[in-house]
Specification:
This protein is of the alpha+beta class and 590 residues long. The protein has eleven helices and 30 strands. Strands 24, 25, 26, 27, 28, 29 and 30 form a seven-stranded antiparallel beta sheet that branches. A six-stranded antiparallel β-barrel has the order 10-11-12-15-14-13. The chain starts with 43 loop residues before the first strand and ends in a 13-residue tail after the last helix.
Length: 590
């Protein structure tokens, strides 16, 4: 007897989903990117070997259509009506439509075409400019700064722009040893040279010296900043295959975003197209085939799906023009102030503001800012370059939209001036403020500079950076690191451009340092009564010390006292025991 089948509605087929993965593919640190989420977007492959088969199958199906069958149950809705209401990334038909010779192989004319298919068709000519980036990374060992970690490889995406240049993400080539590029449909990898790395904006610029690489490829053209609900198509080389892939979606949000790799906040686009590991550095095209952004990070959260982020064209053009203007990347400037919202009416009255005045109150001013002497705490910023600032710190952006006024600052270049109007003691004042890059007491990145260290009597001194905290306490360092270090990381300001936070990283055990073995990541405040400004000044003071004892004043009222001659003599034996070539890093020797 055959299988008994219940009557009623046919069960739906399970949705086609990709397994969610935590995949580190390119960043030297676990926290450079948000964890990538595998979304439910269909990925359309452009592999040449599958095009002919799919095209032949479509032709046979058109010439020999299957006999019509009448199904049981309620009549189906029309396909056209169904596709009108379908999300841009949802599959409107069970058959995939591969790309062939710059066009889309369509079904018979009676089959309607979904919106995202027309977008993808326009993108096809520009897809040849999308390249795969292969990088070998050698990351410094911040916990053992005299050596490096084991090298590892990664792959990501990039695209060709004018001037024989290629753009990709900065985290794709971070701590690079070798970078190679491969064009679509090619079996050759070309050695690339890194021209500039923009850490804050997470963009890197590459070039290839081999002229063969540039043959037969047209550079990508940039488009304007898209509007909400505009269709976007992300092209790249994500996990799940070796060939190029395309995912489609719409722009769902435009605002100031937190750039995870750059540890800064800049303008960004949120889209619902899938951005997975390997998509980083790939272009996002609009429906005209112009690039409107660079895929760079996505959000993984149990309550969120299909949230990807794209670096928009204003940020990209700022990076490119900065490089062309200065011959190097100089960064995005800041105003150098911390401010407070003025939404409370009593607070506005106390600050002497009139009913028609709006602005934000300055809380603190960066001591390293070039014009820190002009502005004062409790000044109320009324406008920036003629644009009025609201009580919540926003300015008009586009029709019906507002954005944080830091966007206006980020449009400037390092060394530019801006006209800032402030309210001080009920008087309106105007200042031409020179803008500069941010000098952090605990830097978010160390660029290509190896970490600094100094060793005396087994005490390893180093300067605290975010990569160091991540190396010591993992990607959750903001929860696991000592409270005093976190407080300085989040709130402390550098008093001078060369100030560093110096700590005893660890103690390499020896007879001379008995009793001090448990000192770990404790800040050094002074040496022999003199304040410690940075690691180099500490090394110079110790090496040139003629006192009988070396005294280090530490955080939590701890002190370390060593006999000077014995400490210097023991250092050589300790270096030999631990196979350390030098007692200090190269940058401290100059």
């Amino acid at each position: 007897m055959g299988e008994t089948r219940k009557r009623g509605r046919k069960p739906k087929a399970p949705a086609s989903t990709t397994e969610t993965m935590d995949f580190q593919y390119t960043s030297a640190s676990n926290a450079t990117q948000t964890d990538y989420v595998a979304a439910q977007n269909d990925v359309f492959s452009a592999a040449n070997d599958s095009v002919a088969t799919a095209a032949a199958a479509a032709k046979n199906d058109a010439n020999n259509p299957p006999p019509a069958r009448r199904g049981r149950g309620r009549p189906r809705k029309s396909e056209a009506g169904h596709m009108e209401d379908t999300e841009p990334h949802a599959a409107a038909s069970p058959e995939r439509r591969p790309y062939q010779n710059g066009a889309v192989v369509l079904e018979p004319p009676t089959q309607p075409v979904a919106k995202w298919e027309s977008v993808a068709a326009r993108v096809v000519p520009a897809m040849d400019a999308v390249v795969k980036v292969f990088c070998v990374h050698t990351e410094p060992n911040y916990s053992l700064p005299w050596q490096r970690k084991r090298q590892y490889s990664s792959s990501s995406s990039g695209f060709i722009i004018g001037g024989k240049r290629v753009l990709t993400n900065a985290h794709s080539v971070e701590h690079y040893t070798q970078v190679k590029l491969k064009k679509r449909g090619s079996d050759t990898k070309y050695l690339a040279t890194v021209l500039a790395i923009g850490t804050e904006c997470d963009i890197a610029m590459l070039t290839v010296s081999d002229d063969e690489f540039w043959e037969g490829v047209s550079p990508v053209e940039f488009g304007d900043l898209p509007a909400l609900q505009d269709a976007v198509t992300v092209v790249g080389y994500p996990i799940g295959g070796d060939t190029i892939s395309v995912t489609s979606g719409v722009v769902s949000r435009i605002e100031i975003l937190s750039y995870v790799h750059g540890s800064t906040e800049l303008l960004g686009l949120q889209i619902d197209a899938a951005i997975n590991s390997g998509n980083s550095g790939g272009p996002a095209f609009n429906d005209k085939g112009n690039c409107v952004g660079i895929a760079f990070q996505s959000l993984k959260h149990e309550d969120a799906e299909n949230i990807g982020y794209v670096i928009p064209t204003p940020v990209i053009m700022h990076f490119i023009q900065d490089y062309e203007k200065n011959g190097a990347y100089t960064g995005f400037p800041i105003l150098g102030v911390e401010w407070q919202k003025m939404e409370n009416p009593d607070l506005r009255l106390a600050m002497g503001m009139k009913s028609d005045q709006k602005g934000v109150r300055i809380r603190r001013i960066e001591p390293t800012a070039p014009e820190s002497h002009l502005l004062k705490p409790s000044d109320v910023i009324l406008s920036f370059d003629g644009v009025k600032v609201a009580n919540d710190g926003t300015v008009p952006f586009r029709h019906g939209e507002r954005i944080g006024f830091s966007y206006l600052v980020s449009q400037k270049y390092t060394g530019d001036t801006a006209l800032v109007k402030v309210l001080r003691d009920s008087k309106i004042l105007e200042f031409d403020i020179k803008l500069a890059t941010h000098k952090r007491l605990i830097p978010a990145h160390t660029s290509a500079i190896p970490p600094s260290y100094y060793i005396i009597a087994g005490f390893v001194f180093t300067a605290v950076t975010v990569p160091y905290l991540r190396s010591e306490y993992g990607k959750d360092y903001e929860f696991d690191a000592p409270v005093k270090l976190l407080d300085k990381h989040l709130h402390a300001m550098a008093e001078s451009t060369d100030e560093q936070l110096v700590v005893i990283s660890q103690v390499l055990v020896a007879d001379i340092n008995i009793g001090y073995e448990d000192i770990v990541n404790t800040q050094v405040l002074a040496f022999n009564g003199k304040p410690v400004k940075n690691l180099k000044s500490l090394a110079n003071m110790v090496d040139n010390c003629n006192d009988e004892y070396l005294r280090f004043d530490l955080e939590y009222q701890q002190i370390v006292v060593l006999h000077a001659k014995a400490a210097k003599a023991a250092t050589l034996d300790i270096l030999t025991t631990h196979c350390i070539s030098s007692a200090m890093s190269d940058d401290l020797k100059t």
